[in-house]
Amino acid sequence: MIMIDYHVHTYLCRHAEGDPQDYVNAAVEKGLKEIGIADHFPLETMGITPKTQVTMNEDELETYFQMIRKASQTGGISVKTGIELDYAPGKTEELAPVLEGYPFDYIIGSVHFMDDWDFTHPFFAGEFEERSIEEVYERYFALVDEACRSGVIDIIGHIDVVKKFNYRPEERFLKPLYEEVAQVLKDTGVCLEVNTSGLDAPVKEFYPDRALLSRCIRKGVKIVLGSDAHSPTQVGRYFPLARDMLREMGVNETVVFCKREGSLRSLE
Ligand code: ZN
Ligand code: FE
Ligand code: FE
Ligand code: ZN
User: Fold this and answer.
1) How far is CA 242 from the centre of its chain?
2) Alpha-carbon torsion angle 67, 161, 198, 171, nearest 10
3) Half-sphere exposure of 12 (CA within 13 A, CB side)
4) pLDDT along the chain (268 residues), means of 10
5) What does DSSP assign to residue 41?
6) β-strand partners of 229
7) What is the number of the ligand closest to the CA of 112?
8) SS3 for 187-222, per residue?
9) What's the pTM value of the predicted model, to 2 decimals?
10) Residue 138, burial from CB neighbour count under 10 angstroms (0-12, 13-18, 19+)
11) Number of the ligand closest to the Cα of 12
12) 40 CA → ligand 1 middle, Å
């Protein structure tokens, strides 16, 4: 399997295990040709203190870069320095100059919070029962659109992760939201992540679902693959399945990043 995984975490985020070297070793074993470490960027830097710590501390960023640098000396694989950055309206935009100072090859932007609700955390999933599902989806996709327009991110992570716990509105309600976000991706040039972790979540399907994915593909949005591994055993999970699906949908290339510049590589 000659593919690229751009979304793996490390123990620094307090809800994953393994260090960059463990993930790189797993990737070599699986025959990946490139891996990008993309742990959660410190929320502390954005002045956010969630109820549960889910990111590294700001003073651990240096350790993060050092560990990746060391792991990148592993033979037979290319190792990239990524990050998964939360989108918080206003605060993420303010970070732009700070982010320029770090050696990132790419930045994945993700929406994990609606105000202070950590809606992807199983612990807080009960709140879906107490809200209007339509309003939740509208708010979620508005944040995703803003994240893409922020100019700060290269890739949008798990674009429809709001479905994670299987709370979904009707299809006809989703259509305009999908159309809007696909157009925003096209206009901004932000890449779409096909995140395979959804297959292991209650929703049991990739992020995005086929309807949104095909809409984006039709518009010419470029794709990257990510496993969202929180354990080295999850590196490249379901990638052959994802590759076959993408090929069937007419996608033959994915994007590789170097110092925030993307270029196309054939999907092997
Ligand atoms: Zn995580
Ligand atoms: Fe995420
Ligand atoms: Fe992640
Ligand atoms: Zn993620």
Assistant:
1) 15
2) -160
3) 28
4) 90 97 97 97 93 93 98 96 97 95 98 94 95 98 98 98 97 97 98 98 98 98 98 97 96 97 93
5) P
6) 8
7) 2
8) HHCCEEEEEHHHHHCCCCCCECCHHHHHHHHHCCCC
9) 0.97
10) middle
11) 1
12) 7
